[in-house]
Design brief:
Largest sheet: 4 strands, antiparallel
Number of helices: 11
CATH architecture of the largest domain: Alpha-Beta Complex
Number of strands: 14
Strand order of the largest sheet: 1-2-3-4
CATH topology of the largest domain: DNA primase DNAg catalytic core, N-terminal domain
Structural class: alpha+beta
Number of domains: 3
CATH class of the largest domain: Alpha Beta
Low-confidence stretches: 85-108, 325-335
Shape: globular
Radius of gyration: 21 Å
Length: 335
């Protein structure tokens, strides 16, 4: 799986005159006499501390060349920053006949280019100030985590819906899963979470107060959040995105399955991995453990209770866990 293009490399290819990690702002409406645009190689983002424009490599290309998302994606492809087929493409899909488990049709997990353009536009129309940032900080997330994972706050759902509907139309929004029966899926104030590899391929939102707590796209198969960390030998699986983000914040390669099961598309990628199931130990979590232990049969499975991490080093706990060989046996029981 190819990593996101390095933002300084993209900036140089665009012809931006870099002075270290700084440059003059690329916003044509901002006459920048002193370099105020800063690049963050660590987080692969840019931000102008004068006019406020910011974003990832795709947004940088869009802003600098004054083109849309599709145009930016094509420019990155032409300049060999992005492969023609990303990890989330038909090229890498797995046929059900190739799997060792039960044969059934694998639902598609890939959006098309139109959907991804809508997701990109929607995410970059939002910010993370005020109540949204305060909520995340109170949950223990740092500003660095908020920036790195592009967490956003939907403050005015009606306004955002009207703006995106005006640009793309109701039919395209329905296809993208953002509208159901004429109603905007994210219809209340919420934290908006983009799922991205080379592109934004899914969006989930977390309601700040009312039920339901989680909003998912309608008619779209739920993917795994942060699946790109599958390249690690040890991976952690959580039920929810916030649990995964809490682990990622302390350097643990974590993914979220968005529930208690996992789409068959992903199974083959776990073969030979050490998988830590970091799930709630309620009825739902226990069901998830049983399901995952059976489906991810090609991996070594370890169970870790959330409370075990309280005040302890996660890496030390995992080492101890593996030393005790708390893994699934061929009989389907736990040793």
């Amino acid at each position: 799986m190819r990593a996101e293009p390095k933002i300084l490399d993209v900036a140089q290819a665009l012809g931006i005159n870099l002075k270290g990690k700084m440059a003059h702002c690329i916003n044509p409406n901002h006459p920048d006499t002193h370099p105020s645009l800063m690049f963050s190689p660590q987080y692969n983002r840019f931000k102008c501390f004068s006019c406020g424009i910011h974003g990832n490599v795709y947004e940088l290309v869009k802003q600098y060349l004054n083109i849309d998302f599709k145009g930016a994606l094509e420019w990155l492809r032409q300049n060999n920053f992005v492969e023609r087929e990303s990890h989330y493409s038909k090229k890498t899909s797995v046929a059900s006949s190739d799997l060792k488990h039960e044969k059934k049709t694998i639902k598609p997990v890939f959006p098309d280019a139109n959907d991804m353009e809508i997701y990109d536009e929607f995410i970059h129309s939002l910010s993370i100030e005020g109540q949204g940032r305060e909520y995340l900080l109170n949950r223990g997330f740092t500003n660095q985590t908020i920036m790195l994972y592009q967490l956003k706050y939907l403050d005015n759902p009606v306004k955002s819906f009207l703006e995106i509907k005006r640009k793309f139309g109701l039919k395209k929004l329905e296809h993208a899963g953002l509208v159901c029966r004429g109603k905007f899926v994210f219809h209340q104030q919420c934290i908006v979470i983009p799922f991205w590899d080379e592109n934004i391929y899914y969006i989930q939102a977390r309601n700040l107060s009312n039920k339901p707590k989680i909003y998912n796209l309608v008619g779209k198969t739920k993917p795994i959040y942060n699946f790109r960390c599958i390249d690690n030998k040890i991976v952690w699986l959580t039920e929810g995105v916030f649990d995964a983000l809490s682990l990622l914040q302390v350097g643990i390669p974590a993914m979220a399955i968005l529930g208690t099961s996992i789409n068959d598309y992903y199974i083959k990628f776990f073969e030979g991995k050490n998988v830590i199931l970091f799930l709630d130990f309620d009825a739902s979590g226990q069901r998830a453990i049983d399901i995952l232990a059976k489906k991810i049969s090609g991996a070594k499975i370890y169970i870790l209770k959330k409370e075990t991490l309280d005040g302890n080093d996660p890496n030390e706990i995992v080492t101890e866990l593996m030393d005790k060989s708390k893994q699934r046996t061929s009989s389907g029981q736990w040793s």
